[in-house]
C-alpha cells in the first residue's frame, strides 16, 4: 500500500494511491480515520483502517488532486545513520564502524517532493545524500533485533542534505548545524508499507541534473534496519511517525575529485526501487 499526504483545496489530506495513479481521500471514505499520517500511525490498527478505506475507495473514490507533501509532515524525531554503506565508507577512506553512528535532524528540516532545498548564505559546500528512510509505526524501548521489524510501518525516500563546510570544516565539527538547516531533509513521495519493501535488497541512487551520481544497493548496508532500531532503542523510545535515515551509498559530492557541491538551479532525483522517486530543486537563500 502506498500512502501520501496531499495539499488540497480542503487542506492537507491523507490519501491512498490506486493502481492507475489516482488518489483516494481516505478520511472521506472513513470519517473515523485520523486526519494526519502521524495520527494514523499512532492509532491502534490505524494502517489496517487506512487499507480498508483505500480498498473501499478504489472503484468510486472520492478521488482528489493536489500537491504532494512530505508523507509524515511533523515527525517527532528524525534519526540519521552515518557511514552505513560499505562502499561509501571505502570511498571516504573511513574505517568500517563497529556500531551505528547516529545523529539527528530537527523536524523542521523535513520537506516534500518538488519543494526547494534552500542553500544558506553561510554554507558553500552543500552535498546530496540519497537514503532509504524508515517510518516507525509502533512505540518501543529496548527493542530486540528479532522484534524490530514489528515497529516499522513502512519506508519512504529521503535526501540527507549536508553542509560539509559546517559539518567538518568548523572547530570540532558542527554536525548539528551542518545537518539541520531548514529544508535539509526532503522525503517522499509516498509511505510504502513494510509488506511491499525488502529494505536490505533494493537499488538506491541519485541523479543530479539528469546524471547518475549515486548508484548502489541496500545490500551494502553495514547495519540493517533491525540492527539500527535495536541499537537506538536501547537509549531512546521510538514512536509512531519517527523517521530513520539509514545512510547513503557512495558518490557523494564531497568524495569526488574535484568535489561536486549543490548550486542554485540544480535538480536532484533520489530513486529507490519499489519505494519511489523523490525530486527536489535547489535554490539560493
Summary, kept brief:
The chain has helices at 26-29, 37-42, 46-57, 86-91, 164-167, 175-179, 225-232, and strands at 2-8, 11-17, 23-25, 63-64, 67-69, 78-82, 101-105, 110-111, 117-119, 126-127, 130-136, 152-159, 162-163, 185-193, 203-208, 211-217, 243-245, 267-272, 276-284. The protein has 285 residues and is α+β, with helices and mostly antiparallel strands. The strands form three sheets. Strands 1, 2, 3, 4, 5, 6, 7, 8, 11, 12, 14 and 17 form a twelve-stranded mixed sheet that branches. Strands 9-19-18-15-16 form a five-stranded mixed sheet, with no helix packed on it.
The largest pleated sheet is described as: 12 strands, mixed
Distance between the termini: 37 Å
Give the class-level CATH name of the largest domain: Alpha Beta
**Fraction of residues in β-strands:** 25-35%
Structural class: alpha+beta
Helix content: 10-25%
Order of helices and strands: EEEHHHEEEHEEEEEEEHHEEEHEEE
User: Assembly type of the shown chains?
Assistant: single chain
The general outline is globular
- How many DSSP-defined strands? 19
Q: How many H/I helices?
A: 7
CATH evolutionary superfamily of the largest domain: Fumarylacetoacetase-like, C-terminal domain
Tell me what the CATH architecture of the largest domain is. Answer: Alpha-Beta Complex
The CATH topology annotation of the largest domain reads as: Fumarylacetoacetate hydrolase, domain 2
Computed over alpha carbons, the radius of gyration is: 18 Å
Question: How many domain modules?
Answer: 2
- Average pLDDT, rounded to a whole number, is 96
Uncertain residue segments = none
Amino acid at each position: 500500500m502506498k500512502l501520501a499526504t496531499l495539499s488540497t483545496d480542503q487542506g492537507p489530506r491523507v490519501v491512498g494511491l490506486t493502481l492507475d495513479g489516482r488518489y483516494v481521500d481516505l478520511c472521506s471514505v472513513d470519517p473515523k480515520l485520523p486526519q494526519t499520517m502521524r495520527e494514523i500511525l499512532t492509532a491502534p490498527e490505524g494502517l489496517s483502517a487506512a487499507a480498508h478505506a483505500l480498498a473501499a475507495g478504489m472503484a468510486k473514490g472520492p478521488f482528489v488532486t493536489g500537491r504532494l507533501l512530505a508523507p509524515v509532515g511533523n515527525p517527532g524525531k528524525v534519526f540519521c545513520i552515518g557511514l552505513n554503506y560499505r562502499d561509501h565508507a571505502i570511498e571516504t577512506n573511513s574505517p568500517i564502524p563497529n556500531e551505528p553512528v547516529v545523529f539527528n535532524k530537527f523536524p523542521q528540516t523535513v520537506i516534500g517532493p518538488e519543494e526547494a532545498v534552500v542553500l544558506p548564505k553561510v554554507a558553500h559546500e552543500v552535498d546530496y545524500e540519497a537514503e532509504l528512510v524508515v517510518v516507525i509505526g509502533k512505540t518501543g524501548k529496548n527493542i530486540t533485533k528479532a522484534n524490530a521489524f514489528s515497529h516499522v510501518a513502512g519506508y519512504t525516500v529521503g535526501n540527507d542534505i549536508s553542509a560539509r563546510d559546517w559539518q567538518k570544516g568548523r572547530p570540532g565539527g558542527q554536525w548539528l548545524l551542518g545537518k539541520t538547516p531548514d529544508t535539509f531533509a526532503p522525503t517522499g513521495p509516498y509511505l510504502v508499507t513494510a509488506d511491499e519493501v525488502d529494505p536490505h535488497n533494493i537499488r538506491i541512487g541519485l541523479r543530479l541534473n539528469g546524471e547518475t551520481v549515486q548508484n548502489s544497493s541496500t545490500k551494502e548496508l553495514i547495519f540493517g534496519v533491525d540492527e539500527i532500531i535495536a541499537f537506538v532503542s536501547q537509549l531512546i523510545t521510538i514512536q509512531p511517525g519517527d523517521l530513520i535515515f539509514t545512510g547513503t551509498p557512495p558518490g557523494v559530492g564531497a568524495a569526488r575529485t574535484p568535489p561536486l557541491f549543490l548550486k542554485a538551479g540544480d535538480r536532484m532525483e533520489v530513486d529507490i526501487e519499489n519505494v519511489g522517486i523523490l525530486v527536489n530543486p535547489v535554490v539560493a537563500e
